[in-house]
From TrEMBL:
NCBIfam families in the record: anchor_AmaP
Transmembrane recorded as keyword: yes
Membrane-spanning ranges: 48-66
Annotated source species: Moorella mulderi DSM 14980
Entry protein name: Alkaline shock response membrane anchor protein AmaP
Length: 180
């Protein structure tokens, strides 16, 4: 929220609060706010001021109503690659997912990869959900996969990889071939 929006919201809150206090005072039996309202309707110069206050309240209410209906912009998570005197260089999460997928596909026996990444202050945590070929030794394949993803991300993106967790979700089954 920008500074202008915060100032407008504060103004709107103060005006609504003042009108609420006046309404509560009238309900409690204090007639001065009613007398002032009646006076503002009788004299043309006060009527103009009352109309301006009502217009400002309406426009502010409309502004905040429309802002609340607008979908929030998705904040894209990213990891800092390098921070230097001239600024920082970062990489977006989808780009990191592509790098992880590319590294995982280089391991023989991996058929499908669905990476889940978490960017932490200490580094990158990688979870891989994979489908593998049926003729592979799973402990060897997962160890090779962890090593390959770790090395590839460190070498390519320069990020510290804290962990690479692998979950084998399925064994790839080729369709049965019919003999005719």
């Amino acid at each position: 929220m920008s500074m202008l929006e915060r100032a407008l919201l504060a103004l709107f809150a103060l005006l609504v609060a003042a009108l609420s206090v006046a309404a509560l005072a009238v309900i409690a039996g204090w007639t001065v706010p009613l007398d002032l309202f009646e006076l503002s309707l009788l004299r043309p110069d006060y009527r103009l001021i009352a109309g301006l206050v009502a217009a400002v309240l309406f426009l502010l209410a409309l502004r905040f109503f429309l802002a609340s209906m607008r979908p929030a912009a998705a904040r894209e998570e990213q990891a800092v690659i390098k921070s230097a005197d001239l600024g920082t260089a970062s990489i977006a999460l989808p780009a990191l997912e592509n790098l992880v997928t590319r590294a995982a596909r280089q391991v023989k026996g991996v058929r499908e990869v669905r990476p889940i990444l978490r960017v932490l202050p200490e580094g990158l945590a990688v979870k891989l959900n994979i489908t593998v070929s049926p003729d592979r030794n799973l402990p060897e394949l997962t160890a090779a996969l962890q090593e390959k993803v770790h090395e590839y991300i460190v070498a390519t993106a320069g990020l510290e990889v804290l962990e690479v967790q692998v979950r084998v979700n399925g064994i790839y089954q080729e369709g049965l071939r019919r003999v005719e």
